[in-house]
Amino acid sequence: MGQKTNPIGARLGIIRGWESNWYGSKKDYATKLIEDNKIRTYLNARINKGGIAKIVIERTLNKLIVTIHTSKPGIIIGKGGGEVDRIKEELKKLTGKDDVQINILEIRRPELDANIVGDTIARQIENRINYKRAIKMAIASALRMGAEGIKIKVAGRLGGAEIARTEEIKQGRTPLHTLRMDIDYANVYALTVYGKIGIKVWICKGEVLAKRDLNPNFVGGKEGGLSDRRDRRDGDHGHGHHRGDDRRGGGDRGGERRGGGDRDRRPGGGGGDRRPGGSGGDRNRGGGGGGRR
Question: To which H or E segment does residue 256 belong?
Answer without folding.
Answer: helix 252-258
